Description:
Elements: H1 3-52, H2 70-73, H3 84-100, H4 108-117, H5 122-181
Amino acid sequence: MPKLKQNKRKALDKLLTSIGALIVIFLVVVGSLAWWAYSFTSNNVKSELASQKIYFPPKGSQALSSPEIGPYLDKYAGQQLLTGPEAKAYANHFIAVHLSEVANGQTYSQVSQEALANPSNQVLKAEAQTLFQGETLRGLLLGDAYAFWTVGHIAQVAAIACFIAAGVMLVLVLLGLWHLSTF
């Protein structure tokens, strides 16, 4: 190989190896931040849910006997609600089922309008309050606990992908350095 061509090739190899090393550093930093996001969201969701002291009904209880509830919550029977999937199951298959039994399945918005139109009707006021509290708790479990838990686990997958990519790039950088040393 002519000397000029060899020098150009060596310069290109140095450039590509240097860029590869920068990519490794970048991937490790991004992976570390994504792992931190996963840890933060998972720990935050778990500690917030733990502080609420919500427990699934015990195994074999009447509360789990409904076909709209039991098949979805039996696996959590008696446990404390601590994770995003548990929050989703509790919100969709316990709270939502019980809310559908209030006011003939009407929503808070519907019952609230009726209650405002009939201010002396105490039954409507009580139903509106029950629906408001239930729908608020359900929304918090789905929007805060389940959603943030899911985002955290997406960050975990991204972190693992970054670390794997960094490992592959590191091998390529090391091969580039080895190749440079053989010139």
